[in-house]
Amino acid sequence: MSSKQSQPMQKRSSGFSAHKPALPELLTNPPLRKGMHPIQVVRGMRDLLPSDQPYWKQMEDMAERMAMDYGYARIDTPLIEDYSLFIRGVGKVTDIVEKEMFHWETPGGEHVGLRPESTASVARAYVQHGMLNLPQPVKLWNIGPMFRYDRPQAGRFRQFYQASFECIGEADPIVDAQLIIVSWNLLKGLGLDPTVKVNSLGNPESRLNYKNALVSYFRGKRSQLSEEDKKRLVKNPLRLLDSKEPNMQELKAEAPQMVDWLDEESKAHFMRVLEYLDEVGVPYQLDPYLVRGLDYYTKTVFEWFANSNDQELAQSALGGGGRYDLLIELLGGRPTPGAGFSLGLDRIASRLKELNPTPPAKDEVDIFLAQLGEMGRKKALGLFEEFRTAGLLVGEAFAKSSLKAQMEIANRRKAKWTIVIGQKEVLDGTAIVRDMDSGTQEIIDAKKAVHEMKKKLGLHTQ
Ligand code: HAM
Fold this sequence. Notes:
Helices cover about 40% and strands about 20% of the residues. It has about 450 residues and is of the alpha+beta class. The chain has 2 domains: about 55-205 and about 265-355, BirA Bifunctional Protein, domain 2 (2-Layer Sandwich); about 365-455, Anticodon-binding domain (Rossmann fold). The strands form 3 sheets. Strands 1-5-6-11-10-9-7-8 form an 8-stranded mixed sheet, with helices on both faces. A 5-stranded mixed sheet has the order 13-12-14-15-16, with helices on both faces. Histidyl-adenosine monophosphate (HAM) binds near residues 117 and 346.
Protein backbone atom coordinates (compact mmCIF):
# COMPACT_ATOMS: atom_id res chain seq x y z
CA MET A 1 0.00 0.00 0.00
CA SER A 2 1.38 3.46 -0.89
CA SER A 3 1.91 6.01 1.87
CA LYS A 4 -0.82 8.13 0.34
CA GLN A 5 -3.29 5.24 0.55
CA SER A 6 -2.38 4.42 4.12
CA GLN A 7 -3.09 7.91 5.45
CA PRO A 8 -6.81 7.53 6.16
CA MET A 9 -6.06 4.35 8.15
CA GLN A 10 -3.61 6.25 10.38
CA LYS A 11 -6.04 9.08 10.86
CA ARG A 12 -8.80 6.69 11.79
CA SER A 13 -6.71 4.71 14.26
CA SER A 14 -5.75 7.93 16.07
CA GLY A 15 -9.45 8.36 16.86
CA PHE A 16 -9.55 5.24 19.04
CA SER A 17 -9.18 5.83 22.77
CA ALA A 18 -8.21 3.37 25.46
CA HIS A 19 -11.13 4.35 27.70
CA LYS A 20 -13.98 4.82 25.29
CA PRO A 21 -14.33 2.47 22.31
CA ALA A 22 -14.69 4.77 19.28
CA LEU A 23 -16.97 4.26 16.28
CA PRO A 24 -15.35 4.28 12.86
CA GLU A 25 -14.77 7.79 11.57
CA LEU A 26 -17.53 7.35 9.00
CA LEU A 27 -20.09 7.19 11.77
CA THR A 28 -18.67 9.86 14.08
CA ASN A 29 -18.11 12.57 11.50
CA PRO A 30 -20.57 14.31 11.69
CA PRO A 31 -21.07 13.08 15.26
CA LEU A 32 -24.07 10.86 15.91
CA ARG A 33 -26.68 12.54 18.08
CA LYS A 34 -29.64 10.97 19.80
CA GLY A 35 -32.84 11.45 17.80
CA MET A 36 -30.99 11.93 14.51
CA HIS A 37 -33.01 10.73 11.53
CA PRO A 38 -31.66 7.66 9.79
CA ILE A 39 -30.47 8.39 6.26
CA GLN A 40 -33.16 7.72 3.68
CA VAL A 41 -32.98 6.88 0.01
CA VAL A 42 -32.71 10.00 -2.22
CA ARG A 43 -36.05 11.44 -3.38
CA GLY A 44 -37.32 9.78 -6.54
CA MET A 45 -34.97 6.78 -6.09
CA ARG A 46 -35.94 3.48 -4.50
CA ASP A 47 -34.66 0.08 -3.48
CA LEU A 48 -35.74 -2.98 -5.38
CA LEU A 49 -36.11 -5.33 -2.44
CA PRO A 50 -35.81 -9.13 -2.45
CA SER A 51 -39.63 -9.28 -2.56
CA ASP A 52 -39.56 -7.22 -5.80
CA GLN A 53 -36.95 -9.39 -7.46
CA PRO A 54 -39.18 -12.25 -8.71
CA TYR A 55 -41.15 -9.72 -10.79
CA TRP A 56 -37.96 -8.18 -12.17
CA LYS A 57 -36.53 -11.58 -13.01
CA GLN A 58 -39.75 -12.42 -14.83
CA MET A 59 -39.50 -9.23 -16.95
CA GLU A 60 -35.80 -9.70 -17.70
CA ASP A 61 -36.35 -13.32 -18.72
CA MET A 62 -39.24 -12.36 -20.99
CA ALA A 63 -37.24 -9.54 -22.63
CA GLU A 64 -34.34 -11.93 -23.21
CA ARG A 65 -36.65 -14.53 -24.68
CA MET A 66 -38.16 -11.98 -27.12
CA ALA A 67 -34.66 -10.84 -28.07
CA MET A 68 -33.76 -14.45 -28.94
CA ASP A 69 -36.99 -15.12 -30.82
CA TYR A 70 -36.74 -11.97 -32.95
CA GLY A 71 -32.97 -11.90 -33.41
CA TYR A 72 -31.91 -8.92 -31.28
CA ALA A 73 -28.35 -8.83 -29.91
CA ARG A 74 -27.66 -7.33 -26.50
CA ILE A 75 -25.78 -4.04 -26.22
CA ASP A 76 -24.90 -2.21 -22.99
CA THR A 77 -23.99 1.44 -23.27
CA PRO A 78 -22.72 3.60 -20.37
CA LEU A 79 -25.05 5.36 -17.95
CA ILE A 80 -23.04 8.54 -18.47
CA GLU A 81 -22.79 10.10 -21.92
CA ASP A 82 -21.74 13.40 -23.45
CA TYR A 83 -24.54 15.85 -22.63
CA SER A 84 -24.67 17.02 -26.24
CA LEU A 85 -25.71 13.50 -27.36
CA PHE A 86 -29.11 14.11 -25.77
CA ILE A 87 -29.35 17.74 -26.89
CA ARG A 88 -28.84 16.60 -30.47
CA GLY A 89 -30.60 13.26 -30.26
CA VAL A 90 -33.60 13.71 -27.98
CA GLY A 91 -33.98 17.46 -28.62
CA LYS A 92 -32.94 20.60 -26.76
CA VAL A 93 -36.44 21.88 -26.08
CA THR A 94 -37.96 18.59 -24.94
CA ASP A 95 -38.97 18.38 -21.26
CA ILE A 96 -36.64 15.39 -20.92
CA VAL A 97 -33.53 17.37 -21.86
CA GLU A 98 -34.52 20.87 -20.80
CA LYS A 99 -35.94 20.05 -17.37
CA GLU A 100 -35.26 16.46 -16.46
CA MET A 101 -31.61 15.66 -17.08
CA PHE A 102 -29.05 15.08 -14.37
CA HIS A 103 -26.01 16.74 -15.93
CA TRP A 104 -22.80 18.31 -14.68
CA GLU A 105 -19.29 19.29 -15.60
CA THR A 106 -16.56 16.80 -14.70
CA PRO A 107 -13.34 17.98 -13.01
CA GLY A 108 -11.77 17.55 -16.48
CA GLY A 109 -14.24 20.03 -17.99
CA GLU A 110 -16.45 17.58 -19.93
CA HIS A 111 -20.17 18.25 -19.85
CA VAL A 112 -21.78 14.88 -19.19
CA GLY A 113 -25.22 13.61 -18.19
CA LEU A 114 -26.94 10.51 -16.85
CA ARG A 115 -28.85 8.96 -19.73
CA PRO A 116 -32.57 9.78 -19.64
CA GLU A 117 -33.21 7.11 -22.30
CA SER A 118 -31.05 4.73 -24.33
CA THR A 119 -32.04 5.17 -27.99
CA ALA A 120 -29.64 8.08 -28.52
CA SER A 121 -26.86 6.03 -26.87
CA VAL A 122 -27.52 3.00 -29.07
CA ALA A 123 -27.58 5.21 -32.15
CA ARG A 124 -24.26 6.75 -31.05
CA ALA A 125 -22.78 3.28 -30.60
CA TYR A 126 -24.08 2.23 -34.06
CA VAL A 127 -22.25 5.16 -35.65
CA GLN A 128 -19.13 4.97 -33.46
CA HIS A 129 -18.56 1.24 -34.08
CA GLY A 130 -19.22 1.39 -37.81
CA MET A 131 -22.24 -0.92 -37.60
CA LEU A 132 -23.34 0.46 -40.94
CA ASN A 133 -20.86 -2.03 -42.41
CA LEU A 134 -22.68 -5.00 -40.86
CA PRO A 135 -25.58 -6.72 -42.65
CA GLN A 136 -28.60 -4.44 -42.17
CA PRO A 137 -30.79 -4.05 -40.24
CA VAL A 138 -28.79 -4.20 -37.02
CA LYS A 139 -31.12 -5.31 -34.23
CA LEU A 140 -30.03 -4.37 -30.72
CA TRP A 141 -31.65 -4.61 -27.29
CA ASN A 142 -30.73 -3.41 -23.83
CA ILE A 143 -32.07 -3.28 -20.32
CA GLY A 144 -31.08 -0.98 -17.47
CA PRO A 145 -31.63 2.18 -15.45
CA MET A 146 -32.50 5.59 -16.90
CA PHE A 147 -32.56 8.90 -15.02
CA ARG A 148 -35.02 11.78 -15.29
CA TYR A 149 -35.30 14.56 -12.76
CA ASP A 150 -39.07 14.65 -12.96
CA ARG A 151 -41.51 15.28 -10.08
CA PRO A 152 -41.74 11.89 -8.35
CA GLN A 153 -45.23 10.41 -8.18
CA ALA A 154 -46.96 7.04 -8.63
CA GLY A 155 -45.23 5.25 -11.51
CA ARG A 156 -42.70 8.05 -11.95
CA PHE A 157 -39.22 7.75 -10.52
CA ARG A 158 -35.98 9.62 -11.00
CA GLN A 159 -34.20 6.33 -11.55
CA PHE A 160 -36.34 3.90 -13.49
CA TYR A 161 -35.70 0.89 -15.72
CA GLN A 162 -36.39 0.22 -19.35
CA ALA A 163 -36.04 -2.71 -21.73
CA SER A 164 -35.48 -1.34 -25.22
CA PHE A 165 -35.36 -2.86 -28.70
CA GLU A 166 -33.90 -0.93 -31.63
CA CYS A 167 -33.89 -1.99 -35.30
CA ILE A 168 -31.48 0.20 -37.27
CA GLY A 169 -30.93 0.24 -41.03
CA GLU A 170 -34.34 -0.68 -42.46
CA ALA A 171 -37.05 1.75 -43.59
CA ASP A 172 -39.80 -0.77 -44.42
CA PRO A 173 -43.06 -0.36 -42.45
CA ILE A 174 -43.00 -4.06 -41.60
CA VAL A 175 -40.26 -3.19 -39.08
CA ASP A 176 -42.57 -0.72 -37.29
CA ALA A 177 -45.32 -3.34 -37.20
CA GLN A 178 -43.02 -6.08 -36.00
CA LEU A 179 -41.68 -3.86 -33.19
CA ILE A 180 -45.25 -3.34 -32.04
CA ILE A 181 -45.76 -7.10 -32.25
CA VAL A 182 -42.58 -7.79 -30.22
CA SER A 183 -43.62 -5.36 -27.48
CA TRP A 184 -47.13 -6.80 -27.52
CA ASN A 185 -45.80 -10.34 -27.13
CA LEU A 186 -43.46 -9.26 -24.35
CA LEU A 187 -46.32 -7.69 -22.39
CA LYS A 188 -48.70 -10.56 -23.16
CA GLY A 189 -46.04 -13.10 -22.18
CA LEU A 190 -46.01 -11.43 -18.75
CA GLY A 191 -49.75 -11.96 -18.45
CA LEU A 192 -50.83 -8.39 -19.30
CA ASP A 193 -53.59 -7.52 -21.70
CA PRO A 194 -52.52 -4.09 -22.98
CA THR A 195 -53.68 -1.80 -25.77
CA VAL A 196 -51.46 0.19 -28.07
CA LYS A 197 -52.19 3.70 -29.33
CA VAL A 198 -50.68 4.50 -32.71
CA ASN A 199 -50.20 7.61 -34.80
CA SER A 200 -47.92 8.92 -37.53
CA LEU A 201 -45.92 12.14 -37.27
CA GLY A 202 -45.01 12.14 -40.95
CA ASN A 203 -41.79 13.55 -42.39
CA PRO A 204 -40.21 16.81 -41.12
CA GLU A 205 -41.95 18.93 -43.77
CA SER A 206 -45.43 17.60 -43.15
CA ARG A 207 -44.82 17.87 -39.43
CA LEU A 208 -43.76 21.49 -39.83
CA ASN A 209 -46.91 22.27 -41.81
CA TYR A 210 -48.98 20.57 -39.16
CA LYS A 211 -47.16 22.47 -36.41
CA ASN A 212 -47.98 25.76 -38.13
CA ALA A 213 -51.65 24.79 -38.40
CA LEU A 214 -51.65 23.85 -34.73
CA VAL A 215 -50.02 27.12 -33.70
CA SER A 216 -52.57 29.23 -35.58
CA TYR A 217 -55.41 27.16 -34.04
CA PHE A 218 -54.10 27.51 -30.47
CA ARG A 219 -53.19 31.19 -30.94
CA GLY A 220 -56.91 31.75 -31.36
CA LYS A 221 -57.44 30.03 -27.98
CA ARG A 222 -54.47 31.67 -26.22
CA SER A 223 -56.56 33.27 -23.47
CA GLN A 224 -57.79 29.81 -22.45
CA LEU A 225 -54.29 28.33 -22.15
CA SER A 226 -52.41 27.86 -18.87
CA GLU A 227 -49.06 29.62 -18.43
CA GLU A 228 -47.25 26.32 -19.06
CA ASP A 229 -49.23 25.70 -22.26
CA LYS A 230 -48.54 29.25 -23.47
CA LYS A 231 -44.84 28.43 -23.19
CA ARG A 232 -45.38 25.18 -25.09
CA LEU A 233 -47.17 27.09 -27.83
CA VAL A 234 -43.98 29.06 -28.43
CA LYS A 235 -41.35 26.40 -27.77
CA ASN A 236 -42.81 23.02 -28.71
CA PRO A 237 -46.41 23.34 -29.96
CA LEU A 238 -46.86 19.59 -30.61
CA ARG A 239 -46.51 19.00 -26.87
CA LEU A 240 -49.72 20.99 -26.36
CA LEU A 241 -51.54 17.85 -27.45
CA ASP A 242 -49.94 16.05 -24.50
CA SER A 243 -50.89 18.70 -21.95
CA LYS A 244 -52.62 17.41 -18.83
CA GLU A 245 -54.48 20.71 -18.22
CA PRO A 246 -58.18 20.00 -17.51
CA ASN A 247 -59.54 22.14 -20.39
CA MET A 248 -57.15 20.66 -22.97
CA GLN A 249 -59.45 17.72 -23.83
CA GLU A 250 -62.08 20.20 -24.93
CA LEU A 251 -59.65 22.48 -26.76
CA LYS A 252 -58.04 19.53 -28.54
CA ALA A 253 -61.33 18.22 -29.88
CA GLU A 254 -61.46 20.90 -32.57
CA ALA A 255 -57.71 21.10 -33.20
CA PRO A 256 -56.28 20.06 -36.59
CA GLN A 257 -55.20 16.41 -36.76
CA MET A 258 -51.84 15.16 -37.99
CA VAL A 259 -53.37 12.57 -40.36
CA ASP A 260 -54.84 15.37 -42.45
CA TRP A 261 -51.38 16.87 -42.93
CA LEU A 262 -49.40 13.72 -43.65
CA ASP A 263 -47.34 13.61 -46.84
CA GLU A 264 -48.29 10.85 -49.29
CA GLU A 265 -45.30 8.64 -48.48
CA SER A 266 -45.87 8.79 -44.72
CA LYS A 267 -49.57 8.13 -45.21
CA ALA A 268 -48.85 5.04 -47.33
CA HIS A 269 -46.24 3.91 -44.79
CA PHE A 270 -48.73 4.26 -41.94
CA MET A 271 -51.45 2.38 -43.84
CA ARG A 272 -49.05 -0.53 -44.36
CA VAL A 273 -48.18 -0.60 -40.65
CA LEU A 274 -51.88 -0.78 -39.76
CA GLU A 275 -52.50 -3.52 -42.34
CA TYR A 276 -49.72 -5.63 -40.79
CA LEU A 277 -51.13 -5.05 -37.31
CA ASP A 278 -54.57 -6.12 -38.55
CA GLU A 279 -53.02 -9.24 -40.06
CA VAL A 280 -51.66 -10.34 -36.67
CA GLY A 281 -54.65 -9.09 -34.67
CA VAL A 282 -52.82 -6.55 -32.50
CA PRO A 283 -55.45 -4.53 -30.59
CA TYR A 284 -54.53 -0.96 -31.59
CA GLN A 285 -56.31 2.37 -31.28
CA LEU A 286 -55.64 5.28 -33.63
CA ASP A 287 -54.76 8.34 -31.55
CA PRO A 288 -54.40 11.44 -33.74
CA TYR A 289 -52.99 13.38 -30.77
CA LEU A 290 -50.21 10.99 -29.81
CA VAL A 291 -47.01 13.01 -30.21
CA ARG A 292 -44.44 11.48 -27.77
CA GLY A 293 -41.97 13.49 -25.71
CA LEU A 294 -38.82 13.01 -27.78
CA ASP A 295 -37.96 14.99 -30.90
CA TYR A 296 -36.33 12.23 -32.94
CA TYR A 297 -39.51 10.60 -34.21
CA THR A 298 -40.63 10.51 -37.82
CA LYS A 299 -43.65 8.60 -39.17
CA THR A 300 -44.96 5.85 -36.84
CA VAL A 301 -45.23 6.44 -33.08
CA PHE A 302 -46.94 4.22 -30.49
CA GLU A 303 -47.56 3.87 -26.78
CA TRP A 304 -48.75 0.92 -24.66
CA PHE A 305 -51.33 1.23 -21.89
CA ALA A 306 -52.50 -1.32 -19.33
CA ASN A 307 -56.10 -2.26 -18.80
CA SER A 308 -56.13 -1.71 -15.03
CA ASN A 309 -58.65 -0.80 -12.31
CA ASP A 310 -56.04 1.59 -10.99
CA GLN A 311 -56.79 4.86 -12.80
CA GLU A 312 -53.23 6.15 -12.56
CA LEU A 313 -51.78 2.92 -13.89
CA ALA A 314 -54.29 2.81 -16.75
CA GLN A 315 -53.31 6.34 -17.77
CA SER A 316 -49.55 6.12 -17.57
CA ALA A 317 -47.89 4.47 -20.53
CA LEU A 318 -46.22 1.10 -20.02
CA GLY A 319 -43.93 1.84 -22.92
CA GLY A 320 -43.61 3.57 -26.22
CA GLY A 321 -41.60 3.89 -29.36
CA GLY A 322 -41.57 4.71 -33.02
CA ARG A 323 -39.52 5.39 -36.09
CA TYR A 324 -36.51 7.74 -36.04
CA ASP A 325 -35.25 7.93 -39.62
CA LEU A 326 -33.15 11.08 -39.06
CA LEU A 327 -31.50 10.28 -35.73
CA ILE A 328 -28.39 8.50 -37.02
CA GLU A 329 -27.67 11.37 -39.39
CA LEU A 330 -28.26 13.91 -36.60
CA LEU A 331 -25.56 12.14 -34.62
CA GLY A 332 -23.06 12.35 -37.43
CA GLY A 333 -23.68 9.04 -39.22
CA ARG A 334 -24.72 8.40 -42.82
CA PRO A 335 -28.49 8.75 -43.36
CA THR A 336 -29.88 5.52 -41.88
CA PRO A 337 -33.46 4.73 -40.91
CA GLY A 338 -34.32 3.20 -37.55
CA ALA A 339 -37.19 2.32 -35.24
CA GLY A 340 -37.59 0.94 -31.74
CA PHE A 341 -39.44 0.90 -28.45
CA SER A 342 -38.80 0.98 -24.71
CA LEU A 343 -40.93 -0.62 -22.02
CA GLY A 344 -41.05 0.95 -18.55
CA LEU A 345 -40.25 -1.91 -16.20
CA ASP A 346 -41.23 -0.09 -12.98
CA ARG A 347 -44.75 0.42 -14.24
CA ILE A 348 -44.99 -3.12 -15.60
CA ALA A 349 -43.80 -4.47 -12.23
CA SER A 350 -46.62 -2.55 -10.47
CA ARG A 351 -49.10 -4.14 -12.83
CA LEU A 352 -47.60 -7.61 -12.28
CA LYS A 353 -47.86 -7.11 -8.51
CA GLU A 354 -51.47 -6.06 -8.87
CA LEU A 355 -52.20 -9.23 -10.86
CA ASN A 356 -50.15 -11.57 -8.70
CA PRO A 357 -49.59 -10.17 -5.19
CA THR A 358 -47.71 -13.25 -3.96
CA PRO A 359 -44.75 -13.87 -6.22
CA PRO A 360 -43.70 -17.48 -6.71
CA ALA A 361 -41.24 -18.53 -4.00
CA LYS A 362 -37.79 -18.78 -5.47
CA ASP A 363 -36.12 -20.44 -2.51
CA GLU A 364 -37.25 -24.01 -3.05
CA VAL A 365 -34.62 -26.68 -2.43
CA ASP A 366 -34.32 -30.42 -3.03
CA ILE A 367 -32.48 -31.20 0.19
CA PHE A 368 -32.53 -29.58 3.61
CA LEU A 369 -29.69 -30.15 6.05
CA ALA A 370 -30.85 -30.19 9.67
CA GLN A 371 -28.51 -30.55 12.64
CA LEU A 372 -28.65 -31.22 16.37
CA GLY A 373 -25.98 -30.22 18.87
CA GLU A 374 -22.60 -28.60 18.21
CA MET A 375 -21.01 -31.74 16.73
CA GLY A 376 -23.93 -32.20 14.34
CA ARG A 377 -23.81 -28.57 13.34
CA LYS A 378 -20.10 -28.72 12.49
CA LYS A 379 -20.55 -31.86 10.41
CA ALA A 380 -23.57 -30.37 8.60
CA LEU A 381 -21.62 -27.19 7.78
CA GLY A 382 -19.03 -29.25 5.89
CA LEU A 383 -21.65 -31.47 4.26
CA PHE A 384 -23.53 -28.40 3.01
CA GLU A 385 -20.42 -27.32 1.11
CA GLU A 386 -20.08 -30.83 -0.39
CA PHE A 387 -23.69 -30.76 -1.63
CA ARG A 388 -23.38 -27.22 -2.95
CA THR A 389 -20.14 -27.99 -4.80
CA ALA A 390 -21.80 -31.05 -6.34
CA GLY A 391 -24.46 -28.70 -7.78
CA LEU A 392 -27.35 -29.87 -5.59
CA LEU A 393 -30.07 -27.47 -4.42
CA VAL A 394 -29.62 -27.55 -0.68
CA GLY A 395 -30.90 -25.44 2.22
CA GLU A 396 -29.98 -25.00 5.88
CA ALA A 397 -30.76 -23.04 9.04
CA PHE A 398 -27.54 -23.56 10.96
CA ALA A 399 -28.29 -20.78 13.46
CA LYS A 400 -31.38 -22.65 14.68
CA SER A 401 -30.96 -25.42 17.24
CA SER A 402 -34.54 -26.71 17.52
CA LEU A 403 -35.26 -29.57 15.13
CA LYS A 404 -38.92 -28.52 14.96
CA ALA A 405 -37.98 -25.02 13.74
CA GLN A 406 -35.63 -26.51 11.14
CA MET A 407 -38.30 -28.93 9.89
CA GLU A 408 -40.72 -26.02 9.45
CA ILE A 409 -38.19 -24.22 7.27
CA ALA A 410 -37.56 -27.42 5.31
CA ASN A 411 -41.30 -27.66 4.66
CA ARG A 412 -41.61 -24.01 3.68
CA ARG A 413 -38.74 -24.43 1.22
CA LYS A 414 -40.44 -27.52 -0.20
CA ALA A 415 -37.47 -29.83 0.46
CA LYS A 416 -37.99 -33.34 -0.90
CA TRP A 417 -35.56 -34.81 1.64
CA THR A 418 -34.25 -33.61 4.95
CA ILE A 419 -30.95 -34.94 6.20
CA VAL A 420 -30.60 -34.92 9.98
CA ILE A 421 -27.22 -35.11 11.70
CA GLY A 422 -26.93 -35.27 15.48
CA GLN A 423 -24.14 -36.34 17.85
CA LYS A 424 -24.91 -40.06 17.41
CA GLU A 425 -24.74 -39.80 13.61
CA VAL A 426 -21.42 -37.95 13.78
CA LEU A 427 -19.95 -40.65 16.00
CA ASP A 428 -21.36 -43.44 13.75
CA GLY A 429 -20.35 -41.66 10.53
CA THR A 430 -23.98 -41.79 9.32
CA ALA A 431 -26.85 -39.43 8.45
CA ILE A 432 -30.63 -39.83 8.68
CA VAL A 433 -32.51 -39.17 5.44
CA ARG A 434 -36.18 -38.33 5.81
CA ASP A 435 -38.52 -38.48 2.81
CA MET A 436 -40.64 -35.36 3.38
CA ASP A 437 -43.66 -36.72 1.49
CA SER A 438 -44.00 -40.16 3.06
CA GLY A 439 -42.28 -39.41 6.39
CA THR A 440 -40.16 -42.60 6.10
CA GLN A 441 -36.57 -42.46 7.27
CA GLU A 442 -33.39 -44.37 6.47
CA ILE A 443 -29.81 -44.26 7.61
CA ILE A 444 -27.02 -43.69 5.10
CA ASP A 445 -23.23 -43.58 5.21
CA ALA A 446 -22.32 -39.87 5.65
CA LYS A 447 -19.30 -40.25 3.34
CA LYS A 448 -21.62 -41.36 0.53
CA ALA A 449 -24.29 -38.74 1.23
CA VAL A 450 -23.78 -36.76 -1.99
CA HIS A 451 -23.77 -39.92 -4.11
CA GLU A 452 -26.89 -41.31 -2.36
CA MET A 453 -28.84 -38.07 -2.70
CA LYS A 454 -27.91 -37.70 -6.36
CA LYS A 455 -29.27 -41.20 -6.94
CA LYS A 456 -32.52 -40.32 -5.15
CA LEU A 457 -32.85 -37.19 -7.29
CA GLY A 458 -32.30 -39.23 -10.44
CA LEU A 459 -29.12 -37.32 -11.25
CA HIS A 460 -26.18 -38.87 -13.02
CA THR A 461 -23.60 -40.26 -10.56
CA GLN A 462 -20.11 -41.54 -11.31
P1 HAM B 1 -40.39 7.12 -23.33
O1 HAM B 1 -41.82 7.16 -23.76
O2 HAM B 1 -39.79 8.38 -22.86
O3 HAM B 1 -39.59 6.53 -24.57
O4 HAM B 1 -40.20 6.02 -22.20
C1 HAM B 1 -40.67 4.70 -22.37
C2 HAM B 1 -41.33 4.23 -21.09
O5 HAM B 1 -40.46 4.39 -19.97
C3 HAM B 1 -42.58 5.02 -20.68
O6 HAM B 1 -43.70 4.60 -21.42
C4 HAM B 1 -42.70 4.66 -19.21
O7 HAM B 1 -43.30 3.39 -19.05
C5 HAM B 1 -41.23 4.56 -18.79
N1 HAM B 1 -40.84 5.80 -18.09
C6 HAM B 1 -40.49 6.97 -18.63
N2 HAM B 1 -40.20 7.87 -17.66
C7 HAM B 1 -40.37 7.25 -16.48
C8 HAM B 1 -40.23 7.62 -15.11
N3 HAM B 1 -39.80 8.83 -14.76
N4 HAM B 1 -40.50 6.69 -14.15
C9 HAM B 1 -40.91 5.44 -14.50
N5 HAM B 1 -41.05 5.03 -15.77
C10 HAM B 1 -40.80 5.91 -16.75
C11 HAM B 1 -38.24 6.35 -24.59
O8 HAM B 1 -37.54 6.41 -23.62
C12 HAM B 1 -37.71 6.01 -25.96
N6 HAM B 1 -36.27 5.72 -25.84
C13 HAM B 1 -38.45 4.83 -26.58
C14 HAM B 1 -37.91 4.42 -27.91
C15 HAM B 1 -37.01 3.43 -28.15
N7 HAM B 1 -38.22 5.00 -29.06
C16 HAM B 1 -37.54 4.39 -30.03
N8 HAM B 1 -36.81 3.45 -29.47
